[in-house]
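Lab manual, section 2.4: Encoding a predicted structure.

Procedure: take the sequence of the chain (161 residues), apply the prediction step described in section 2.3, and record the output as structure tokens. A sample record is shown.
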Amino acid sequence: MIESTYTHVIVEEGENEMIVTFAQDRDISILINLVKIVQDEFPGLVMEDYIKFLKNSIREKTAIIAKEKNIVYGVLLFSYDNREISFLAVNPKYRKKRVATILIKKMLNQFPKGVEITVTTYRENDPKGTAARALYKSLGFKEGELLIEFDYPTQKFILNS
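Recorded output:
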């Protein structure tokens, strides 16, 4: 079930209106700029690989962007086949404003009810993962197996939507 309508959300009363929709080719440069801001938070991220993955995700309608004109609040890339969140980033200026929650809910609307969705994030005692783990738990994700990805200790989270 693909949702084609835009979602409008007020990020700060009277200031910014955020549109959440599928990313398009015209969004590539602003999405690359966002990833440059947050790339240190993603161990193993290689910009060239990310750009290829981003372009493919846009083509497959698995890239969701939260933006206002040319300001990017956040991006979420996901996989229909693997039923997973592949990448989620929010501009530090717009964190704690529900941007990640809105992106995840938009993605969840693309799947039938009852589908298991996974995401990999930092492990429990990693200070980089405090906010991400709290977000996923608040949305109903449960802790799963411990993993190593990109030579970094991570943990899978699972949601039965």
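Check your result against the sample. The chain has a mean pLDDT of 90.
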